[in-house]
Amino acid sequence: MKYKFIELEIKDYIAEVELARLDSLNALSLEFSSEIADVFQKLGTRNDVRVIILTSKARIFCSGLDIKEVGNHLLKASAESMNESMEKERLQPFFDSCNFIEECPKPVIAAVHSRCIGGGLDIISACDIRLCTEDASFSLREAGIGLVADMGVLQRLPLIIGQGFTRQMAFTAAEYPAQEAEKMGLVNAIYKDKDSLMAGAKKLAAEIAQNAPLGVRATKEVLNYSRYTDVKSGMAMALKNNLFLMSSDDFKEAIAAFVEKRPPKYKGQ
């Protein structure tokens, strides 16, 4: 798993995905977005990965879409009179970069430092948990440049911070500091600097990784499904998953560990 714009490290069941398109402050190009989609799709299938931390090696977390590339695509589309379907296919890597994070069966923790702009907010809204540094800020810039955010943030963000705060962020295109983001519920915790942020993210990831992998995976599946359905349907899915999980080796190990008064050793089976 070698990438041009991503650095990857896997240790103790925790995968650290570091965005590293340094010369553009992690501006999202089609190629970069394709790599993000690919790494999450592949990590989701690996037995040696139970949790993923998404962070940035650049000076900021993400500067948003690569405006120059996107602008050229839109101008070309206009010149060629391309229809909506053709343009969606051309821009699909942008959508996949967020969709594959949300659909990844492993929990994803976003560790954000400094500025998280536009498409960067789309990406972290697809993550399960968000942490940030004191100097972090968040903004939806699309309305400020005459566009609409179309990578899923307008659909996912209201489920995280509510309609009121989402509309405020989207309509103003302003930057919101870490303290305001925490009050909104966008981030779970704020850390002094990047070093303490990563230490906190790794500690949280380790807490998740020690639990039964199949149980964590099924829990994420039910949580994702339940956001778009009614309570009874969500409960039915949870029950269906439990009927399967009760026959797993991990569940048997949990019972044995409880009886023997020892920590369980899960294998994800």
Question: What can you see in these coordinates?
Answer:
By secondary structure, this protein is α/β, with parallel strands linked by helices. It has 2 domains: 6-209, 2-enoyl-CoA Hydratase, Chain A, domain 1 (Alpha-Beta Complex), CATH 3.90.226.10; 213-260. The protein is built from 11 helices and 9 strands. The protein has helices at 30-43, 67-80, 84-90, 92-103, 119-125, 153-172, 178-184, 194-209, 213-226, 231-245, 249-260; strands spanning 6-11, 14-19, 51-56, 108-112, 115-117, 129-133, 137-139, 176-177, 189-191. The strands form 2 sheets. It has a 6-stranded mixed sheet with strand order 1-2-3-4-6-9, sandwiched between helices. It has a 3-stranded mixed sheet with strand order 5-7-8. α1 (30-43) runs parallel beside α4 (92-103), α5 packs across α6 (153-172) and α9 runs antiparallel to α10 (231-245).
